[in-house]
Amino acid sequence: MSRRLPPLNALRVFETAGRRQSFTEAAQELGLTHGAVSRQVRLLEDWLGHALFTRSHRRVTLTDRGAAYLAEIGPALDRVAAATARQIEQRSSRLLRVNALATFTLRWLIPRLSAFQMANPHLEVRLTTSNARIPDLNEPYDVAIRGGPDQVPGHVAQEFLSETRIPVCSPALVERHPLARPQELARHTLLHSATLPGVWAQWLVAARAPDLEPAGSVTLEHFYLTLQAALDGVGVAMGPTALVADDVAAGRLVIPFEQPALPARSYYTYVPEGFADDPAVRSFCGWLRRIAQAPRKAHD
């Protein structure tokens, strides 16, 4: 059944004038002239067929019928305003705070993040990086990404990306000095990260070349600097397979030896228990799991 509704703009003006008991104050609140308020009220009165205000020289007063109408209209407009505000809130960006490891963020997350943003335009991701332990984080977060598995009290942890470590280098490097056997690393510079000082020694033991002496060694402060040095042809780095996969696929890095591959900690999402059922958090964590298993070309 169709609704018989009065002119809605006139209804809004009437509610304001009735609540204010003044055409002048209603005009100020609505950004209209006194005459425009008076005309809209008169339009509504003509539509209803009776007066809503008693007008004197300097003031207006609601009639009994006007007061009864205002008592019905005011709450109805409040409900309309509240419903509209909820719709706008749902349309507006929801801030999702993600704190992740620096190298993981640079090498894996950022190249893929546009796919999440396009699929979730209502979510605004605020991404910060830190290598600090989760209990030591000072800034608020909805999702933290760290290695695992770890037990973090008050958090729900879930694996989404597995990892191993293997030597990687630029194609130009192996063109100058081929790497057919681990022993041929003696002609190369080994790149070390200060945060993972023992990885090369572990790999050389696994490769049955524990006493190998490289042509040179370079240690860099952060792991992402070590990978950049490998890309630039400075030497051979121990690359985490997940974080170098894009460079290998693009031919910027090569893997001279498929084996041995050192086991490494997987990547986990750690979500405070209070946010575990948050739709935005669940959407982001689910996307991480799907994208980690998808071919890179699916989200280039």
TrEMBL record:
One of its GO terms (molecular function) is DNA-binding transcription factor activity. Residues 6-63 form the HTH lysR-type domain. It comes from the Bacteria. GO terms for biological process: DNA-templated transcription. InterPro entries: LysR-type_TF_proteobact-type, LysR_HTH_N, LysR_subst-bd, WH-like_DNA-bd_sf, WH_DNA-bd_sf. SUPFAM superfamilies: Periplasmic binding protein-like II (SSF53850), Winged helix' DNA-binding domain (SSF46785). Keywords: DNA-binding, Transcription, Transcription regulation. Signal peptide: none annotated. Belongs to the LysR transcriptional regulatory family. This is Transcriptional regulator GcvA.
